[in-house]
Amino acid sequence: MSTLHVLSHSPFSDTRLDSCLRLLGSDDALLLSGDAVYALHLQGSALTALEDKTVFILEEDLQARNLECPQWATCVDYPAFVELSIRYDKVNSWL
Amino acid sequence: MSKSLLIISRQAPWSGPGAKEALDIVLAGGAFDLPIGLLFMDDGIFQLLSNQNAAAIQQKNLTANLQALSMFGVDDLFACSHSLSERGISSEELAVADVQPLSTEEVRALVDRYDQVITL
Amino acid sequence: MKFAIALYSAAHAPSSRRALRFAEAALAGGHEIVRLFFYQDGVHIASSNIVTPQDEQDLAQQWATFISLHQLDGVVCIAAALRRGVLNADEAERYQRPGVNLQAPWELSGLGQLHDAIQSADRLICFGGP
Q1: What pLDDT digit, counting tens, does each position of A16-47 carry?
Q2: Residue B83 burial (C-beta neighbours within 10 Å; 0-12, 13-18, 19+)
Q3: Predicted TM-score of the model (pTM)
Q4: B120 touching C (Cβ < 8 Å)
Q5: B7 φ, ψ (degrees, to nearest 5)
Q6: Catalytic residue among C77, C80, C108, C114
Q7: How many domains is chain A built from?
Q8: Which terminus of chain B, N or C, has fewer Cβ atoms within 10 Å?
């Protein structure tokens, strides 16, 4: 079973990303949305921890924050988000 | 066959209605005889401590509700060992007897096993 | 694919808007929404008393319109709603409260509806937080 983990909190003020990364299975993926896209500002090992995972980023949240999609991640719009929710066996949002 | 649901409870007992509202989802599922699991993780493990005195802050004590879970047919209770040790808590200190401590690897496998997950 | 969508944050939360955009995309993609379930602060989306500044998005109104237009099941958890002061006429009468702020297309019901939706759907998606 593969899980798409959805995050929306900034990793600088919240521990959800850390907890999520600990749980992440090899077939799982992350979708960064809302303030979670500030994860692109992570430095050093915190950033490297993210770079080797399967990461999707909600495009509108990048655009709002004037951030660019890094080449180790895939930007998605809403139709693609829907498609991802089907591609993965389940969706776990870190509320 | 019913779909199984894992609730991951991450809120401390009185940080708002979150802990109780997570538990309510579990109890409702149990009442409908659905296969439900409950994992305590991060600050959620604080819900499990014994000798808490909710009355001191005029809050509800959740311990009785947690202990009653098996009466609702919910026997699959788990606690993240990493969250326990991060907070210096041993599994012997927990008020709820049947909570199974799980390693990170085991938590990963647990999430994988369930059909759906809600992380509150 | 059949989706059950659950919302846990109020109308002004960005996640509430994302949930609506997701729901719209799901229907546009030919999928079905079995139920929309509003829990925790998500119950506030059903309030008919929200006054949004003119230069902001009125998500509560957009949600109500979306549910009516597509004749979807928009269920608000009764326990969570009562606690947060979102009441329909029956509950306002029952608890002798002066305000009725939950009307059609919203319905109050229990957590059983969330479980029923999860059992009927292929996918459960939850939205909450920022």
Answers
A1: 999 999 999 999 999 999 999 999 999 999 99
A2: buried
A3: 0.97
A4: yes
A5: -105, 125
A6: C77
A7: 1
A8: N
